[in-house]
## 1
Amino acid sequence: MNSLMKKHGGDAGVNVSTAYMMCQELMISDLLEYAAHVYGRKEIITRRLEGDTHRYSYKEALQRSKKLANALTNLGVKIGDRVGTMAWNTYRHFECYYGISGMGAICHTINPRLFIEQIDYIIHHAETSILLLDACFVPLIEPIASHLEGIKAYIVLIDEDKMPSTSLPNALCYEALMADSSEEYVWPQLSSDTPASLCYTSGTTGNPKGVLYTHRSTILHAYASRNPDALNVSSDSVVMPVVPMYHVCAWGIPYIAPMAGATLVLPGSGMESAQLYELVTLASVDLMLGVPTIWLRFIDYLRSHNLGVPTVHTIAVGGAAAPKSLVEELDKQYGVYLLPIWGMTETSPLATLGAKTHEVASMSTQARYAVQVSAGKPLFGIEVSILDERKRKLPHDGNSKGFLFVRGPWVLNRYYKLEKADAFFRDDQDRLWFDTGDIAVIDEKGYVSIVDRAKDMIKSGGEWISSIDLENTAVGHPEIKEACVIGARHPKWEERPLLFIVKQPHAAIDKEQVYQYLSDRLVKWWLPDDVIFLTALPHTATGKLQKKVLRDRYENYFTKPVLESEV
């Protein structure tokens, strides 16, 4: 090495282990500092829960985030403390993201749509010390407050003159605290690996599990996600996350937007289509993000009111596979590109996506649609692999199906307070991989297609049936609003598909018409053994179909039919 350095003019006496580049820690507070100084006049626009629209700049957001850090310091919050939030998509919740993590505490977002027993468990498990919550969630917490002994104060995110009367002990008004706090605050210099935020999984099997994100993982996720071949967020963008800020940090958008200097539009609790349309029009939104059920309802609203969304060019869809019918209608009727993304709480969450590159744009319509119903390609930093039951690597040939494993700098390496879990695997190079629980196919170009959740695949007569493919085929019918498929026990075939359907309003489709429609599009042995019409399907707090509820009730349908009165 010394001779090589001499040859190229180097000093043989230099210690080659010395870093030659500045070593600067990655801190979340720097994102907002940057936005305030470089894009200080760019706005955050919020539909307030009070009913009006609030607008302010990144510079003002930084000042108020520092006020919050001072207020929390005065309440005794220290580095590493878990500070909970239970709030919608608002500028105040945005301030919590930065004020809490910036001071070195951990912003613990709590999903208010979980069962109250799960919320109780999460607060205790995280040892949350302070809870900031929207006024609408005060009645939710009041019944369990008496045994939330660890919470020292409840801070209600509301104007002083609208502070509700509450039985919560030591209840404080957010705006009163802010009025009494200084905006003079110096962010502590933290290690990049300092924990920054904590989010729990939905707990569909067992108790919810905590995923602890660091400053480093959060910023690297934002770097990768904003790129042109990813979400393509720039200072010209107007971005609206229609995924709640209490769920996986709103897919990272509150960090991506300031990094890019983009205008950030926050819909508050207004996730209904009419409210979204009003805000899209007001702010000229060009990028929206959310789960398929949101967009199916949004398109219904646009169609029924003969409206368009001319400023919107991209809708990013995650949380569940997008049906081809949604891709096609957004494209042909509204000129909107459906950007498929895939990820999990455990992956921060973006891991793969199908950007509209020149290559994709030049494809035939059907080839492009095939990309858009896939999970896309992995972002830089994310590695994906499919393995068989014996953990042997399967080829990326577009045909081989296997268990999807991922690794990367924003993928967890263990759950919070849970040292061991079956979801992790070390390969022959001692590299750690996370088992996503999905069955997938990966093709030669790197596109990942999620076949199904491993637990939702239907094994019939020794062959596999994808519930996702069956559902997405069904919702292609114009009179079907939503569909869900489970595998029910069968005396001969082990399992057979059972299809649940929610009709469009005023639709007249019947069971025979459903079978006819599916018969033209699926092989015979994939056809469901029965079709049940429901007025609504159960969903998780994040909009995903809650198949466990249906499975628990109907798993013996073909061996012990559910009475007609129970359907």
## 2
Amino acid sequence: MESITASKEWQRLAELRRGRQDRRISDTFRADPERAKDLSAEAAGIFLDISRQRLDREILDALFALADARDFSGARDALWRGEKVNHTEQRAALHMALRAEPGDGVGDAETERFVIDERARMRALVERVRSENRFDHVVHIGIGGSHLGPALALDVLDAAHPDNEGIAVHFVSTPDPAPLAKLMRTLPRERTLLALVSKSFTTAETALAFATLADWLSQGKDRAQVLREQVIGVSANVAAMHEGGIPGEHQLRMPEWAGGRYSLWSAVGLPVALRFGMPVFEEMLAGARAMDRHFRNTEPRGNLPLRLALTGIWNINFQDARTHAVLPYSEALAQLPAYLQQLEMESNGKHVDRDGRTVDYRTAPVIWGGVGMNGQHAFFQQLHQGTDWTPLDFILVAGPDHGLRAQRDCVLANGLAQAEALMNGGADESGDALSPYRAFPGNRPSTTILVDELDARRFGALIAMYEHKVFAQSVIWNLNPFDQFGVELGKKIAKRVEPAVSGGKVPDELDPATRQLLNRIVRRET
């Protein structure tokens, strides 16, 4: 495959950029009365509006031509069939199979059987734990995708089910001593269940956190019995779970073909089912499945994930955007920016393409953001008047209002107003000396994502839409979005550093700054 930047489709987009540098977004609305309607689409309970982006129909045509030239449809089919799209690790990427129904054709018969069997085992375990009423608390121990997805889902579903009185869930993602100590001070040992979630079951951070909590649970008891009765393991490494003393009826398997950042749909979503019941977890799967089918079957121009992906390509590669902000106007989605940081930056934060060549174009931007209403009193100053600009995703939730209509209306009005203000800008017309300081340049692009109601089904669809966006961008950039070798180097060095932190010899091969800091840490301990 030729270099993407040398292709005629890429060159056409570069030409369109040069011809539109001075045009404002607001002008495009005046020129095209149907713009808002034409640049919006809806699927699986998600309404997507890209009309406030710095693009038009001609640019969109060129972006769709680029996707076609990169064989987006063929890559999508290969992903769906279960081909080894993760070529560096020789694996399929079948996270869609985790929420598929029999007959959807995601992967092969063996994949389908694995999903059916594991979901049945998960359902049986969840129903038993919930019916026994032995546990009031579950501590979910996992890092990365084993933490970010379930933590976000719990926030969303707690808001959607405010009267739920299910098992309380606590998350431990690292062996940081402060939160561990707090849990051990406050939770009742007899009423606490541990869920150790690790694909390899050898992740050092989670292993240490688990050992600490297991020791605490076992004080004054037979440790082997505690492991049998008060621990659930979720892993692809069944042998390691057996060796760790977790009985088979407390083991749930993660598949090798679903990466951590795509694993919420597997038994990694156990805390959702324990707290809200298996039907709510399955509603979340149903929403994601609806978006999967939309992504698979809808032609490119009406395809929400592809539209979202191509908008990003335009901003990153032709407008020189360096970052991308995600601004949910919903407290329930406060952790969404962190979730998308991993999903996007771990997937497409690569500088080498699928052919092993160093790329000559920008790939994944830095993802950041926060709850929009809070952001208005913090970083929105830079968004409106800073020297740089940032593409934005505004995420609005229309309801329900939980009996607080005025409060809901205030949140929605602010989200709508900020998107308009960033696009149109404005100037102080009073003529006083402060006029330059009150000028707003505008022309700051944004996408609006409207969700009628943030329930389990629509939440599943929202997350799946972003998953498919990331995949579509990887196709354009010719990247493998399913490996993550960048997370490994620092961990290897940490294994050499940790003995020195504990008072051992400081390795000579460490750089001078690290040696200096280690010496200060060791002196503090003595």
